[in-house]
Design goal:
The chain contains 5 helices and no strands. By secondary structure, it is mainly alpha-helical. The protein has one domain. Helix 3 packs parallel to helix 5.
């Protein structure tokens, strides 16, 4: 099925924009409840997740560098590791949302999201330098 390039570009931004919009909505809801600090942290987590999704929008499912491959099966190993990281990050972001809306503590989960984001940035920098 043929899809115009303009339409493909628009689809690239739907989920990141949705993550940012949810972050703004949840942050505003928590601020109105009187929990400004938790609202700001939740907003930061969701905006960071939206930026992560937007920055990876152009990647293909089999993307990655073949230069780092060592032997048979290494590409599937790299893809499996990437999918695992994506799923874990999604679970952490969802848990931050649920805990924030419940009024529970989010600091451990927000810390995990921060560690995941920093690790991603450092690995991108290291792999692009390598």
């Amino acid at each position: 099925m043929w899809i115009a390039s303009e339409r493909r570009r628009a689809h690239r931004w739907i989920v990141p924009a949705f993550a940012a919009a949810v972050g703004v909505a949840v942050g505003a809801t928590l601020a109105v409840r009187g929990d400004l600090e938790t609202g700001l942290v939740t907003l930061a987590v969701l905006l960071g997740y939206g930026v992560l999704l937007a920055s990876r929008g152009g990647e293909t499912a089999g993307g990655g560098s073949k230069a780092l491959s060592v032997g048979r099966g290494s590409e599937s190993h790299s893809r499996a590791a990437a999918v695992t990281g994506d799923v874990l990050m999604g679970v952490i972001v969802a848990a931050v949302l649920v805990q924030a809306l419940r009024g529970a503590e989010i600091w451990v989960l927000a810390g995990l999201a921060g560690v995941a984001g920093v690790t991603y940035l450092l690995s991108i920098a290291a792999l692009s330098w390598y």
